[in-house]
Amino acid sequence: MRLSVTLSMPLTGLLFALWLISTPALALLPPNLQVQANLKRATVPACPKETASGLTITLDEGHLSGRLASLSLDLTCSRSQPDPHDTQTVDPADALSLLLTLPAIDFEIETLTLHLPEGVISGPAKLHHQQQHLDVLWQTDAGATQLSIMPKQSGWRWRGELPGHLLTPSLRQPVQLSGGWQPEQPFTLQVAGSLPAPLAGNWQLALNAELRQGQWQLSPRSQLTVDRLQWKNLTLKQLKLVPQGDLQLDKPWQARLSWQQGQWQQQRLPAAALQLRGEQNNPLRGTVLLELAPDLQLRGNWRYGLGDSGLNKGGLGGSSQLQGSNELALEIPTQSWSAVSVWSWLDSWLNLPVGLAPQAGQLRLSLSAPHLLDNKQPLMVQAELQDGQFGYRDMLAEQVAAKLKLLWSQKGLQSVGPQALSIAKLEIGVPITDINAALRWHQQGPWLSGLTAQALGGQLALSPMALTSKPSGELHASDISLEQILSYANVDGLTGSGQLHGRLPFAYDGGISVTQGRAHSDQGWISYKANQQLAATGEANISLGLTLGLLSDLRYDQLSATISMARTGEATVDTRLQGRAPVMGKMHPVNFNYHHQENLLQLLASLRFAQDLSEQLPARFQGESK
């Protein structure tokens, strides 16, 4: 026997038809009976978006199956829970969802449409009943979706897995989600997944949204957390993104992104925070404020959107097709800070040289990143130091200026074009002027090259060296005036003339040390005129008298010296002179060796003290008139 019923009626008619083939009624029917019920369209008056069409339920030899041409569900529709003691309540049929109305059998659905707070998803699906909940196996353009939906107090609870594309085209991996909604209660959703490339790490999103005046708003209880984020050579830990106040995407919004610690290559990074704001008419662009320290903040603009290839306009529905990738652009316009403030912040987490610090100057910085999420797109950084003044212990560098232009890409941090460094004057006890150099940045870090300077009437040049916490290199000197060196030695009666050339291998490790430095000079002279007391002693001491005689007019053909200095400043200088000197009133060939030990750092410090004292004493104490 075959029985076919075709209906086109509201939901109450569907309930009656389903009763005919319900489980209690099946026991009264012959086992070989075939029954088919058809419903053209069913609606839920309380939720206009919920509809069903093309419903077919078939009973064939005791087995029930169902098909639907379309089923539209609205997870945001508010329904009333009927009170059995209230005779004035609305008809329960008008308040129930179609999911609760369908019989407890499996359904094949040609098009299942789900209305979410923001957007619509649709595609073919299978609906399977499991006691008190429904399992939905759903095929969308973005991939397969599995959802378990459970009625709860006139609302819903759900959990499952869905393609990341349904949230944003940047997510390539499936995400796990759970959540719920009840009338007059916040909409909750917990989602977890992997960060999109080139980022690495896992994220967890907890949303808490409320419907106010027909608009969904995220409450401050919502947050996005990432335990560990990796991007290129950067690692950040314990990231948290939370709204600042209620957040509504069609209105200006503000959120705070913070992290507790980080690392760049082998360098530790301090905690910091970002303040993000969205524009009035476009929530996917706005401003950013990086808070490094109370007096050190970085302001810029950001934009998130599709690239030139774009995404077809189809919302989250089945017609959407991914044709491009989302771009996150960041632009930091040029802005200026005090060099003292920047150095103080760096010194709080970097191993900077002890005693080195700026005393004045302005640092200007700008940044441009057209696509932060694409490893092939570089990040451009430009920095400039103006009117800098640096002190190291009691030494002083004046009018320091530098320019840097860097690219951060897959190859690491690299310099672009000339990177200039200049210092007008470096006072270490002996003035060094006109210092000029070039800076370069490689994957291993910054390098200093081409440094030249003027000192003691000659030129200085520094070999290329890496700027690390313990730098080392070699200083080359040429045409250094022996006369000026002896004048700074401040020994009464000692004069000389000649041009010195040499090299000083040095290293810095808590202090500057020199190992086996060498100097030489050709064709010069040294003269020492002893005072009366020393000259009188020389008349009684033949050896001393001979030495004083040689030094009265020593004309050398070759001067050579070896120089070493410990980190404490204790220096040893061994000098050898070959030439001619007066002996018994006539010039004779001589070889003169001299060994000298002195703390050069203390000597330079005393020279700096004498200079400072002469500058600070009132003019009348120097025998000058004002």
From TrEMBL:
InterPro entries per UniProt: YdbH (IPR021730)
Pfam families per record: YdbH-like
Record's protein name: YdbH domain-containing protein
Source organism superkingdom: Bacteria
